[in-house]
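Run log, item B.
One chain of 388 residues. Sequence copied directly from the ordering sheet:
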Amino acid sequence: MERSVIITQRGAERARARHLWIYRSDVRDAKDISGGSIVSVRDERGRFVGQALYSSRSEISLRILTLSDEKIDKSWWRNRLRAAARRRKGIKNEANAYRLVYSEGDLLPSLIVDVYDDVLVLQTLSQGTEALKEMFVELLAEEHSPRAIIERNDVRVRQLEGLEMRAGLLYGDAPEELEIVQNGVRFLVQPLGGQKTGSFLDQRENRLAVRRVARGRALDCFTFNGAFALHLAPVCWSVLGLDISADAIATARRNVELNDARNVEFREANVFDALREMEAAGERFDTIVLDPPAFAKNRASVRAAARGYKEINLRALKLLNTDGVLMTCTCSYHMSEQMFLEIIADAAHDARRRVQLVEKRMQASDHPILFSVPETYYLKCVIARVLD
């Protein structure tokens, strides 16, 4: 018997426009449907719209899987996973750590899979993918023969689905720590202990981009495990990395030893305070990277986030020498590209510096943006140069 959810005309139009989310406000009837089910979606006139994962708790009630009435079974999921892997075939030549499945961006809503050498890290972020987790583990083991599959389901979004926060081993034998290589730089990663799924994979290509224009004395703010700092080391005469986390700094220092990068040092510090102190002390840099955590967690926090972004960009611009390079980022979806550019322009005005936009960038290509789901575009990255 078909399990159907009835949605409004507005919801149907959204789905037919290829967005993958239907909100609770557009659900008219979901009687006797349990959370995590795969359901048929119909409009108020009974016309078929598609098939979706249903959530009984989230504001995102439906995550569209397909607009056809095809059979969704293990083979269907296998084909979607294979397609995602096929699209990333070339990445293996430059990195052994990358995102294998990017949820909506790969038409696999609320499912994330990251590769760390021979270990896979899985996130099932809705009731629907959580219900299918055992099947995903089987498919990933069959398709990729990993040493281990770990779940990093200790993220806040699961609470919105009424799901437990979990992190642990699902398959195989996982090391506490492993080594990854990106763009020739080596890093130590703790898949069960680091931020996100162990590392910030979405900046992989941006680190190469800034290395092409970096020079002189460099400052890497919010350095985490030292990834930007270590990419800057070969082209800068010195690099200083700042992070408020003592654990992050400890790992970054180990990564320096791993790469024998003798011109890199790290300091535990609050970046906001450190930038002000450096300005007061008259310090100057030729290259600065700003890669902060998301200041805007939701739409309501955008105004406060804008103040934070302006503050660090203003301070950074004041610290740069003429012809100095600034790479500045926001990983907040709610901070649009246009808003971010305006913040940088305002910061430049207040800093009394003329600033040249060199390049606009985004998340790495293994985090693809789906045009019909603008929420998949979250990382905005700007490379700029101070002219005077």
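Observations after the first pass:
- The longest strand covers residues 320-330.
- The mean pLDDT is 95.
Flagged for discussion on Thursday.
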